[in-house]
Amino acid sequence: MEVQQADDYFGYTEKGSSFDAEVRAGLTTFLTMAYILLVNPAMLTLAIGDGSDAGNAQAFSDILFATAIAAFVGCVVMGLWANLPFALAPGMGLNAYFTFTVVNFGMGIAWELALFAVFVEGLLFLLMSLPQVPVIGGWRSKMINSIPTDLKVATGAGIGMFLAIIGLREMGWIRDDGAVLVNLGDTESWGGMIGIACETTAAGCDFTDATIGAEISVGLLAHGAIISMVALIAITIMMARGIKGAMIYGIMFAAVWGWAVGAYDPYNDFLGGGAGWGAVEASAPAIGDIVSTPSMPEETLMAAFGDNGMGAVGDHMSDFLLVMIAFLFVDVFDTSGTLYSVGRQAGYVDEDDVLHNSDEAFASDAVATIVGAVCGTSTTTTYIESAAGV
């Protein structure tokens, strides 16, 4: 498709954009949500893996493929059919519910049955999104249009805050705390990294009589908290100065820095059969590792329709219905809030507070969920990170 043909189809010039800006926006959106290619397989491996190194590695590989193909199908359908700049991928929160509430520590049902629940939820979602379907067709658009504007805007803000908490935790700036739920990161380890002597107390690290070392250790420069915070500040400054591609530059800067100093790298830890929290150093990927031919899933592909999936519905009907309805409910309101919030920012919500091509957008989300369930991942949803590209 030539540039002019692309403009005729997508109409980005009419919307005040350009081909270069669209490419830059797409790359920015990809980089801001690419973390899901690691986080989603890591999360779902806890539910799908058999506990052995080989079994977990195979599960991780299968789910990585399912995550990528669900995101690919969702983004392509959303762009070509709905003509909206919204990116999709398996959702955070829903994958945790799948792993810890449905499969592992909560209800304890088979992961294959949970995948079938996701498939049925996606199918119902699709039927609710198409106005041509009798009785329930178009329900989803009617639902979002009936929600008060303030609540729809707040939903998007809430999702953003949820992701911000996850980001700050992975950066090392905050940590779980049994007393106050969220606390600052491990100050004692920080003191050791920057050569500061401190006295450990019940409240943490007491720096009252601290002595600062003559030089900063290399460990500090390889600490993810430092790398990510410097990158975040750099992105903020560049955006304030109106520099195009600020997020791209900031993310790539952090990646190169991490490769140079050997920062912690959870991805290679997973490939080595670890839990993703080991002391594995980052290294620049080899040329042959950047692009490779994907392998089809061995365990998860079509597992939803096996004996432990669709075949087990009759024996676990009440649990199946509960899980399916929960997935459907969260998916509907998660996607609705995200579509409205990002669409409002991008100018796709009209004066009547109605989202442009909402039926097509919802159906695109449902198609991606169905494809993801067939391949082996939890519910696919529209990403609030799409706002980075609009």
Automatic annotation (TrEMBL):
TM segment ranges: 25-48, 60-82, 102-130, 151-168, 216-239, 246-264, 320-342
Subcellular location: Endomembrane system
Gene Ontology CC: endomembrane system; plasma membrane
Gene Ontology MF term list: purine nucleobase transmembrane transporter activity
Keywords: Membrane, Transmembrane, Transmembrane helix, Transport
Alphabetical list of InterPro entries matching this protein: Azg-like, NCS2
Major subcellular location class: membrane
Pfam families listed in its UniProt record: Xan_ur_permease (PF00860)
Bilayer topology term: Multi-pass membrane protein
Family named by the database record: Belongs to the nucleobase:cation symporter-2 (NCS2) (TC 2.A.40) family. Azg-like subfamily.
Protein name, per record: Guanine permease
